[in-house]
Each structure stands twice: as structure tokens, then as C-alpha cells.
């Protein structure tokens, strides 16, 4: 997760959890979230266009193509908006999952192939931080991983340092 930044913009109140929807992002919603997290994660890139190009290219590599990376949003829209109808203030948080093949040693000593997910790029809209939005996002992601994701374990990529914990 990126560090909390101060903003002079007014607080954006997130709807209650039951009015928030966790779903894959549309192309337009990905661009909105990438634009929003640019200042936190662009590294040496100084132009937003460079950052957007990098993120787009990252999503087309062998390790990420063919649906192996999913960009998720926590939004007030149950259904994805049509292209050009996205509203940045309806996206409260975002996260990425990267499906990876894994080998698991079973209790009987056998090795089996499976899949797991890396969790990365957790980002909350700067104007709605400190409202529990990231907790809701991660709970919804955990529910997906436990059901549709059918995932034996996950790995969390973080730039927060040595200590990173979430209370659910």
C-alpha cells in the first residue's frame, strides 16, 4: 500500500459496506486507479503517460497475460460502466491479483501442482482513507479467493516495510 498523503480536497464519504461492490475493473477504471496512484508508485517516472504505458505493458507480459492478472475495484456500481461513463468518485479502492502456479508438498510427502495468487497494489482513494475501505476491500478479496479463486494460499506484495498487518 502506498503511504498516506495529505490532501486539501474534501473527504469523500464511502457508502456503507453493503452498498459497495467488489468486481474486476474495466479498462477505464484501471486508468482511473493508475492515475490516482501515480504519485505513490511511479518511481523514477515523472510523466503520467510513462506510468500508464508501463502499467499497460506490465499487464501484457507472459506472467500477466491471458487473465493471470486481475485488476479489482471496490465501487458503488454493481455493474461495470460503459466506456467513458466511469466516475472517479465511485471507485473507493483497488487491488491486483496475479495468478501463479505453485507446487505444494502434501502431508503424505507427495508434490502436487496448484495455483495461488499474489496480492499487490492495494490502494485507497486518498479522499476516503481512514474509513475502513481497505478492510472492506480485503475482506471481499478474501471471500473471492476462498470461493471462486479456490486458492490454497496467497502472498502479499507490500512496500510498507517489515511490519504489515490487516485486521479483519
Return the CATH topology.
Aminopeptidase
Q: Please give the domain count.
A: 1
Order of helices and strands: EHHEEEHE
Give the overall pLDDT as a whole number. 87
Q: Roughly how many Å apart are the termini?
A: 16 Å
Classify the helix fraction into a percent range: 10-25%
Bin the strand percentage: 25-35%
Corresponding CATH architecture: 3-Layer(aba) Sandwich
Low-confidence stretches: 1-5, 162-168
Largest sheet: 5 strands, mixed
**Shape by Cα distribution:** globular
* Main sheet strand line-up: 1-2-3-4-5
Give the number of helices: 3
CATH superfamily (homologous) name: Gcn5-related N-acetyltransferase (GNAT)
CATH domain class: Alpha Beta
Number of strands: 5
Question: Which class best fits the helix and strand makeup?
Answer: alpha+beta
Walkthrough of the structure:
By secondary structure, the protein is an alpha+beta fold. It has a single domain, classed as Gcn5-related N-acetyltransferase (GNAT) (Aminopeptidase, 3-Layer(aba) Sandwich). 24% of the residues lie in helices and 26% in strands. It contains three helices and five strands. Strands 1-2-3-4-5 form a five-stranded mixed beta sheet. Strand 3 and strand 4 form a beta hairpin. Helix 1 crosses helix 2. The protein is globular.
Amino acid at each position: 500500500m502506498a503511504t498516506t498523503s495529505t490532501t486539501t480536497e474534501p473527504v469523500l464519504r464511502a457508502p456503507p459496506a453493503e452498498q459497495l461492490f467488489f468486481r474486476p475493473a474495466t479498462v477505464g477504471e484501471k486508468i482511473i486507479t493508475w492515475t490516482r496512484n501515480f504519485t505513490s508508485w511511479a518511481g523514477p517516472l515523472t510523466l503520467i503517460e510513462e506510468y500508464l504505458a508501463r502499467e499497460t505493458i506490465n499487464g501484457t507480459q507472459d506472467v500477466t497475460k491471458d487473465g493471470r492478472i486481475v485488476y479489482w475495484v471496490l465501487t458503488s456500481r454493481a455493474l461495470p460502466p460503459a466506456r467513458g461513463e466511469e466516475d472517479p468518485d465511485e471507485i473507493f479502492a483497488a487491488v491486483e491479483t496475479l495468478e501463479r502456479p505453485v507446487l505444494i508438498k502434501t502431508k503424505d510427502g507427495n508434490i502436487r501442482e496448484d495455483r495461488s495468487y499474489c496480492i499487490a497494489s492495494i490502494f485507497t482513494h486518498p479522499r476516503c482513507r481512514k474509513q475502513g475501505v481497505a478492510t472492506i476491500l480485503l475482506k471481499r478479496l478474501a471471500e473471492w479467493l476462498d470461493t471462486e479463486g479456490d486458492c490454497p494460499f496467497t502472498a502479499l506484495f507490500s512496500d510498507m516495510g517489515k511490519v504489515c498487518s490487516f485486521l479483519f
